[in-house]
Model the fold of this input.
Amino acid sequence: MSKSSENAGKKPLSRSLRVYQKIAIFFVIISFILLLFVLYLSISAATIKITPVLQVVSSETSIEVVPEAINDSQVTGYVILESFSQSRSFALPEEGAVAQEGKAGGTVTLINETNSDQALVVNTRVLSEEGILFRLDEPTVVPAGGQVDAIVHADEAGVTGEIGPSQFTIPGLSASLQEVIYAVSVDSMTGGVEYVRSLTEQDLEMAVLELSDEMLEGAKTEIAKNVDTKTFDGAVYNLEIIERVSDTEPGTEAGSFIVSITADVTGVFYDSSVVEQYMEASLQASVSNDYEVVEIAGDGLQLEIRSIDADSESAVLGAYLDGVAVVSSTSDVLDKERLLGRSPNEVITLLESSALIEKVNVTFTPFWLKRIPSLKDHIKIIVVY
Done:
């Protein structure tokens, strides 16, 4: 068959079919372009990293601790007040003093395990395990089934009386009573060699302060015995000295002196989680809407007792908390609407003009993008601090 006869067998496309074919190709191209555009829109994104200006913020307020809280400024807790008395002998510092022998002394705890009170006269002998004899400075009564602290001094002067913690018998009592009425010491006896100089008011103040700290530590344990410390696990204490007495007046030459104090110790117990949440909310409320608190200071919540009402078993605590705040993600400064369609340089200039922001960095996905996407959910803002 000839070539001309083959061509004659093929019918040319009609004009209408050629038009439909072009339209189909056009729609395929348009669909592909739309697909690329949709894909572009779905993967295009901008990440804006913000380095904020750190702002130190603080909140100071009052919190009332009451037996049963009824409003937002109150928390439920315990307020316990007890009185304590304590005595102790203090040696004067060696600096500027002249050494001379003295009678070592200190505090012993007299213990009575019988059912009757035991009176002891001044100079009653107490004999240590080491065989060193001491005598009571003052008469005292040891209560039945109880104990009492007393000051003793060695019978003889010199360093032999400077013994460590010990247990003592009372030779003046019958052998049977010596088993159930005795004394113990927890501190060393001092003053066998005294450094004599004029006692100053500062010496007394330092001694009172040291004795107060020692009393407070013991009082904390005693007061907490009456509290459910698992529930009320936070505590703040206050010590108020009611009376202080020294056996030596300032200006007197001495090697040692005895200080006695009587004080009221108050313990205020509260649920620490409740108070911390209250103060963290107070701290956040103290800053404007442009800020959010992101860190609490390392020393944490600070509390002190401002006032006590023993009758109502309530107390007012002064509470202080500080921390660090940065620009909030909800601040108008970081409103994404302001950033749509902008170039990186425009975004950086706009944001860094705010006093809340120190530095801005902009990155794109894909990397060849030149402007912020026009959809807000394609913008990610990260505050880095």
In short: Residues 59 and 283 are 5 Å apart (CA to CA). The longest strand covers residues 74-91. The longest helix spans residues 15-43.
